[in-house]
Structure formats: C-alpha cells, structure tokens
Amino acid sequence: MNMNSNSAVFMIFGATGDLARRKLFPAFYSLYREGKLTDHFAVIGLARRPRTNDQFRSDVLESIREFARHEVQGDADWNRFVEHFEYMSLDSTQVAGFHELRKLADRLDEKFHVGGNRLFYLALAPELFGQVTTHIREGGLLESKGWNRLVIEKPFGYDLASAEKLNRQIREVFEENEIYRIDHYLGKEMVQNIGVVRFANALFEPLWNNRHIANVQITLSETVGVEDRGGYYDHSGALRDMGQNHMLQMIAMMAMEPPSRTNPEDLRDEKVKVLRSLRAYRTPEEVRSHVVRGQYTEGEMKGTLQKAYRAEDSVNPNSTTETYFAAKVYVDNFRWAGVPFYIRTGKRLPVKTTEVVVEFKNVPDNVYLANDHRLEPNLLVFRINPMEGIYMKINAKKPGAEGVIIPVAMDFCQSCQVGLNTPEAYERLLHDAVRGDSTYFTRWDEVASAWSFIDRIAEAWSQSSDDLHPYPAGSWGPEAARELLARDGFRWWPVNGQHEGEVIWVEGETK
Ligand SMILES: NC(=O)c1ccc[n+]([C@@H]2O[C@H](COP(=O)([O-])OP(=O)(O)OC[C@H]3O[C@@H](n4cnc5c(N)ncnc54)[C@H](OP(=O)(O)O)[C@@H]3O)[C@@H](O)[C@H]2O)c1
After folding, report:
1. CA 489, CA 164: separation in Å to the nearest integer?
2. pLDDT value at position 412?
3. Does the annotation mark 246 as catalytic?
C-alpha cells in the first residue's frame, strides 16, 4: 500500500464544464510536470453526457494545450500522465450511479496504488452541492482506508440562511476539517504575498494602522459583461458574486493581525476576527450612504458598441440587479478605527484588474517642504491580477530641477520577470487540498460572518431600487462612487499602473 498523503483518487463532478476545462485539468498537468503529484493518483471525470475514456482524454489534452502553463511534452510523457484519467457518465441527482462510482474508484485506487485517499471536487452548479454530498456517503464512497476531502466551489449559499442550510447538509457527511471551500482569490500569488509584505518588512508593519494609513482601496474591475452566465448573474449580482467572497477576503488579508503561528487555523482565526469586526449597516439609509450600486447601459469599449445589461441574453429586461458596487467599509477594532476601506467591483469597466492601494497619511503640511509644495500621499499598491507586483509611490526631487518635488514610482513587477512562470491559483489550491493544508480555503465561520455583513446590504436593496445608478459600458462606474470618496476628501487612485505624470523607477532603472 502507498502511504503517501499526496496521492488520491480525484473525483471531478462537472468534468465537462468550463471550470474543469479552463482551470482544473491544466492545474493537474502543472502539478504533474513539477513533480507535485506522485504517480499514485487517478482522476475520474464525472458528468451526465456520455463520453468514452478516449474522448475524455482528448478533451483533457485540448484543455491543457489551450490553458496550461506548461507545453505538452512528447507522446510517451503525455500517455504516462493521461492514463490516470477515466470518465464515467453520472447523474449526480441519482444515487444509483454512486455505487458504480465506488467500484471504479476502488479499481483505480488499486491500479495506481493510491492507498484509499479520496478527494471529491464539486465543479457543479451550486444547487447540486448538498445532494451530491449525501449521495457520496450513500454510495459508500467514504468507506475507504484513507482520508476523504470535499472541495467545493463558490458560491457557498445565496445568503446566510441558505449557506447555513447547505453547510448543515454537508456537515452530515464531512467534518469541517475535511471541507475545502474554494475562494480562488486566496490562491493568488499576490494575495498570499500581502501577509509576507506586511509582516516581513520593518518598513511597513509599524505603519500598518490608523495612525499612518488614511484609507485602503480595493478594486476588482472586469471588462467583460455577463457573457453566457446571464441567468445565474441576474439572480446573484456583483455584491454576492464578488463582494461576499473575494472582496471581503482581501479586506481580511489586509486588516488581520499577524497570526501567532503558521498553522492553517491561526491565519483563519485572524481573518474571521476581521470579518466579525466589520461595521454592520443597520438601516436602509446607512446602506445608501455607504454603498453605491450601478448597472451598465449601452456604451462603447475600444471602438465596439456593447449592449446594455438589460439587453443581455437570459437577463430580465427590467432587471434591477447590480453589475457594479462600491462600498465604504469600516473594520471596528483598535488598529483600524476610523480608516475607511473602499471597495469597488464591476463589469464592463475600462480595464481588467485587481489592485489594492494603501494610501498613507500626509506629512504635516505646515513644516519644511510641505509648506511650499502640494505633496502627493505615499501609496503602496499590490497588483494582484493580471499584472503581479508591488508598486510604491514616494515623493522625490525632480532630477535637475531646482525645488521641484514630484511623485516617483518604485515598481517591482513580479510577472514581468523573465521566466517567472508563477503557478495559477487553482494549481496552488489543488496542491494544498491534496496535502491537507487548508490555510487558503474559507472556514465556515468566515463564510457565515461574510454573509451576515452582505445580507444587510442585500436586504436594504430589496426594499427599493431607487438608488440603482446606470453607468455606460466602458466607464468607471457611476458618479456616485466618486462622490463616496470625495465626501471624505479622497479619490479613487488610477489602477493598472496608470499613475499619470510621474517618473517610474523600474527595478533600479529610470524610464
Ligand atoms: N467557470 C469558472 O471560471 C468558475 C469560476 C469560479 C467558480 N465556478 C463555479 O464552479 C462550478 C462549475 O462552474 P462551470 O462554469 O464549470 O459550470 P458549467 O460549465 O455549467 O459546468 C457544469 C458541469 O456540471 C455538469 N452537470 C450538470 N448537471 C449535472 C448533473 N445532474 N449530474 C452530473 N453532472 C452535471 C455538466 O455536465 P453535463 O451537462 O454533461 O452533466 C458540466 O460538466 C459552479 O459552482 C461555478 O459557480 C466556476
């Protein structure tokens, strides 16, 4: 028997879907190529449509050719990899197929000397999550001699009540420490780097509080509209689709206290404290004054006219679903009292980017240089996606010019480094799940706290849609989002390195 805990039979529910094709199969290949997956593994692709093993393997090849970081090597290497993949047609709503699945899992376990470990990956529509877990148990799939783990995709519920219901159902089958809830933002290199930059640098940690930080801005902008997910999105909206998970998780990473140890639970304990400290909006008026929502209308993007949200396929023509929201959020604890965290996300915005900007307080304006100059605040920017890096904006003397101070940028562009082919979030998370490291997965109490915060906003919005602001596709969202910051004397900093009119230092050179 193979006792390697890195080995497993992976059962991918939803193996013919978009996520499996774009993210999961490429992740398996990268892990295999980098030696992070032993030979003692098998992948069983599961979905309703009929597929032979050969057809499935050729789908896997196509997906890897299109989306993987590594090029497929010669036939011999490929065949060695793909022989671990088998397909079984299974309707997850019927328990009968799960008994068959158990036999197949047992057979592959034996063939590849896996040792009984099983990882169930739910890449399915969320409505199926609860029922599948029940069927996994009823089909006898948990009766093996190794570990069992459930990896579950977002969204985890539609609100707190539905998330609690789903959680109860799943917990009847799996223990909390066997459940790996994916928020793929936590798998991103630069999100994980936030903690390192904060806690490993004497330059930042002493300043990381309300005495020195004026505000924090988190932008997650998309250029795409709803594409073919109109039906799902119209029911969900930006607040639930992005706010409850990715945006609140990024606030938690920025605001948490340093964990005292490096056990997974220590980091998650610190994050949940932040989520519990979020100031709740108690009335619809409070929601209105702290949260702006918008919906895109027709507009031009890069010379192409894009249709309005309400004209998208499968979207209600009178929909009041938000495709944009911006919020002012407070973390009510000693470190952050009084510091606004501004978050915004939206579809059909001018660029695709995820960035976190930390704006530091200005030097006193009545002394020395500041007396004669309008000094720009120092900024520390985490560029999370698609560019990865850290960018710092400081004030310096303009070279050659007498008495002129200008903002200069020190730019560490991680993704620009030649040959630095950083792992995809899904690779990291899949690897963590098979190693049993749950650090960058969301624990139930985090999910519940995040929903409690989001539910109050959603509840206020459900009462009236008067405050839904239209914004043209290709713009930066409603004017009200600009006013949200202007009222506090701040502005959204340009994202995507578009800090106009400044000198850029890139890795020691002046450009
Ligand atoms: N796509 C992404 O980039 C992305 C990103 C983040 C999160 N997610 C989450 O990941 C999950 C999957 O998303 P997706 O985009 O891959 O969806 P998708 O493209 O619609 O794929 C759904 C998969 O489920 C299978 N399926 C549907 N009903 C089934 C049933 N009764 N029994 C067995 N299989 C069934 C489908 O195959 P058959 O029709 O052949 O059964 C297909 O393989 C969702 O929870 C989504 O929210 C996706």
Report:
1. 40
2. 83
3. yes
CA distance 51 to 57: 10
The H or E element containing residue 31 is helix 25-33
Ligand 1 contacts CB of residue 126 (under 6 A): yes
Is the pLDDT at 300 greater than 70? The verdict is: yes
Q: Using pLDDT thresholds of 50, 70 and 90, give the confidence band for residue 417.
A: low
Let me know how long the chain is: 511
Q: Are 90 and 46 in contact (CB under 8 A)?
A: yes
Q: Ligand 1 mean position to 18 CA, how many Å?
A: 7
8-153: CATH superfamily:
NAD(P)-binding Rossmann-like Domain (3.40.50.720)
* Ligand 1 atom closest to Cα of residue 93: 31
Is any atom of ligand 1 closer than 6 Å to the C-beta of 12? no
**Distance between CA atoms of residues 363 and 375, nearest Å:** 8
- CA–CA dist 505, 511 (Å, integer): 6
Q: What is the pLDDT of residues 186-217, one digit of tens each?
A: 999 999 999 999 999 999 999 999 999 999 99
pTM of the model as a whole:
0.94
* Ligand 1 centroid to residue 230 C-alpha, Å: 15
Burial class (CB in 10 A: 0-12, 13-18, 19+), 470: middle
Locate the ligand 1 atom nearest the alpha carbon of residue 22 and give its number.
3
**If you average pLDDT over residues 280-304, what whole number do you get?**
96
CA-atom Rg of the chain in angstroms: 24
* Domain ranges, ordered by start, for the chain: 8-153, 186-510
pLDDT at 363: 80
- Which residue blocks in 112-229 are alpha helix, DSSP H? 129-138, 160-171, 189-199
Q: What is the pLDDT of residue 297?
A: 98
Probe target for ligand 1 pocket from 19, 93, 385, with the most ligand atoms within 8 Å of CB:
19
Could you tell me the distance, in angstroms and rounded to a whole number, from the CA of residue 153 to the centre of ligand 1?
Answer: 10
Ligand 1 and 261: CB distance under 6 A: no
CA of 19 relative to ligand 1 center, distance in Å? 7
Of the candidates 187, 181, 239, 145, the one whose C-alpha atom is nearest the C-alpha of residue 447 is: 181
Ligand 1 proximity of 47 Cβ (cutoff 6 Å)? yes
CA distance 264 to 49: 38
Which of the following is catalytic: 246, 290, 373, 431?
Answer: 246
Confidence at residue 387, expressed as pLDDT on a 0 to 100 scale: 86
Tell me the residue type at 321.
T
Lowest mean pLDDT among 18-22, 83-87, 500-504: 500-504
**pLDDT over threshold 70, residue 2:** no
pLDDT, tens digit (0-9, with 9 covering 90-100), for 238-274 = 999 999 999 999 999 999 999 988 888 999 999 999 9
Atom of ligand 1 nearest to the CA of 16: 43
* The CATH fold of domain 186-510: Dihydrodipicolinate Reductase; domain 2 (3.30.360)
Q: What token pair was written down for 183? A: 């928020």
